Amino acid sequence: MSISYRQPGVVLTDRRFTVPLDHADPGGERIELYAREVVAGDKAGKELPWLLYLQGGPGFGANRFVGRQAWLDRALDDYRVLLLDQRGTGRSTPATRQTLPLRGGPAEQADYLARFRADSIVRDCEAIRGEVTGGAPWTVLGQSFGGFCTVSYLSLAPEGLDTALITGGLPSLDAHAEDVYRAAYPRIERKVTAHYTRYPQDVERARRIADHLLTHDVVLPNGYRLTVEAFQSLGLMLGTGDGSHRLHHLLEDAFVRTPAGLDLADAFQEQVQNLLSYAGHPLYALVHESIYGQDTRPTAWAAERVRAEFPQFDAAKALAGDAPVLFTGETIHPWMFENDPALRPLRETAELLAARGDWPPLYDPDRLAGNEVPVAAAVYHDDMYVDAAHSLRTAAAIRGLRTWVTDEYEHDGLRTGAPRVLDRLLAVVRDEV
């Protein structure tokens, strides 16, 4: 039974669906999907085209807006919106350290999670589309990993799409995970350099914190072991519009004087554990590298292996000289499954996924070359999370795709630039600019 309720300016309806865990076995086990339908309050009774929103990630539920926030405000001018919690996220059947043991041991858990990639998400969308739209194709808005899913949608089921809109999410069609991270580390270094240029005082602050972590065993209040590598991973923040400023404010209050000398402040530790913990989105860590798997080569902790090619990210070497300590970015490492109490029980499962070598293709280059769906994509000029050069090569491989390349926004431009980013994409895809 669907439940409708109101927030300022909108009417929301909770929607639940069941879909096959394995779409190749439609009569087998089923899982639940949750989605929130949103329509402008003054249009609740009208027939409107549908826009499906695919959240970034992997592993995050759809945005929880209040009223007509961010890009949703612009979307509601034209559409009835479905905010889908992709399989394993939000209020859909969860995949966490608490629930995965219901599947069995690590091998069974890894087999289960292998079905949580973009191809399964697209087939979920097609399975529910008839119930939502009555069979009519819908517009899909894909942010980041949601854009990856949208390119898979164009490959696997373009008949379900009226229009495709992508922000910061045009993936390489053929790059292995190693290629993705080999392109990523130089971009990360550029973002760190830009941060230190903006806040030169943070060079010494980061060195002091890193030195403290190399000489002390620090365990955060939630049980997270804060190593220097974990501290460096806070650089994930630098890929967002306000991330550099937030990182600066975090670093400036790191230490407090105690009877035993300087120590990391409780307030700093509290903020850091909230930033580093995967308790709220463990699926992100578990399947992150697998979103790049498309052949018989295991991903095999690609980000960790490729990092060794960039010795400037070694904090101990930086501290031995006068080099700045470099932060890292959107990378997943095996030590995270040791440091984070939300991930520790899933370490063996993660190892099995990293060793897996039977990933089916996510994209169909021939079908994309013959694409007939109107597509517009925002490509952020020096996106820390998605390589712009990879994105532009993919854009050229999708027939009819029009790009909007901009350096006005970072990866989260859909959020920070709303409603301008969505309005621009709609104008591009409608040939209004």
CATH superfamily of the largest domain: Alpha/Beta hydrolase fold, catalytic domain
CATH topology of the largest domain: Rossmann fold
Largest sheet: 9 strands, mixed
Report mean pLDDT, rounded to a whole number. Answer: 97
CATH classification class of the largest domain:
Alpha Beta
The structural domain count equals: 2
Shape: globular
The share of residues in helices is 25-40%
What separation lies between the terminal Cα atoms? 43 Å
How many beta-strand runs?
13
CATH architecture descriptor text of the largest domain? 3-Layer(aba) Sandwich
Unreliable residue runs? none
Question: Helix/strand/pairing class, anyone?
Answer: alpha/beta
- Helix tally? 18
Radius of gyration: 22 Å
Q: What's the arrangement of strands in the largest beta sheet?
A: 1-2-3-5-4-6-7-12-13
The share of residues in extended strands comes to 15-25%
Task: Note down, in words, how this protein is organized.
- By secondary structure, this protein is α/β, with parallel strands linked by helices.
- It has two domains: about 5-175 and about 365-430, 3-Layer(aba) Sandwich (Rossmann fold), CATH 3.40.50; about 175-355, no CATH class.
- Helices cover about 40% and strands about 15% of the residues.
- It has helices spanning about 70-80, 105-115, 120-135, 145-155, 175-200, 200-215, 230, 245-250, 265-275, 280-285, 300-305, 315-320, 335-340, 345-355, 365-370, 390-395, 415, 420-430; strands at about 5, 10-20, 30-40, 50-55, 80-85, 140-145, 160-165, 220, 225, 255-260, 260-265, 375-380, 400-405.
- It has a nine-stranded mixed β-sheet, sandwiched between helices.
- Helix 2 (about 105-115) packs across helix 14 and helix 3 (about 120-135) packs across helix 4.
- The longest helix has 22 residues, at about 175-200.
- The relative contact order is 0.14.
- The model has no long low-confidence stretch (mean pLDDT about 95).
